[in-house]
């Protein structure tokens, strides 16, 4: 009876070894595919769009004393026009307002009227300077003694490029600055609108998921190396029976179970992470 029992045990061990051996290599291929996620599914680098229509300069007969502009009024009339065109109001953002104010001061100090200063400083500089992380930004400029806030915004609305910024459905925030000063030896008003779509508008993939994926991949790689060594030992162990052989087979099968569980978890996390990556990339593209 003892020899018969031994033969059955060995047969079961060999069957189990072959069975798990097949599963191991099946999951090994799946793990390679899942690990490719970390290389293949990369978060698209944010392309920071900057919309800058030609500056609006209006020469009017009104003197600076006859003209009066306010940043609150400009914001209100901007949102009136958006609402009339079926768009939601832009939210005031203090950082963008500061960027607009810095822009006015720089134009007056440098005596230029353009999106880019003579030294090459563009609108993105001021937005970055105030710490506003954006996906998209835009800048409207105006110079002249406009009658009031409504008159100024209407002048922008009558200009296709400025109108496009005001009615851009992707912008969600705005900062406005107005000011008067000497420009080309004449006292006049300057106005700046800085529009923004913040990075926070697009939810980034959860970093902990990527960290988990990397940790599981490292664990699986260690297990795979151990499994390959064990397989080599088993293949070269003679005879294919006995306590030592059965111990190696059991250790191999136990490790295969661990490996397969990790590989399955990697696949699950990869699916979740990939979904978040796709959502983020579509968001920054405006899809």
Automatic annotation (TrEMBL):
It comes from Candidatus Yanofskybacteria bacterium CG10_big_fil_rev_8_21_14_0_10_36_16. CDD domains: CAP_bacterial (cd05379). PANTHER family: SCP DOMAIN-CONTAINING PROTEIN (PTHR31157:SF1). Residues 77-180 form the SCP domain. InterPro entries: CAP_dom, CAP_sf. This is SCP domain-containing protein. The keyword Nucleus does not apply. Keywords: Coiled coil, Membrane, Transmembrane, Transmembrane helix. Residues 206-269 form a coiled coil. The keyword Membrane applies.
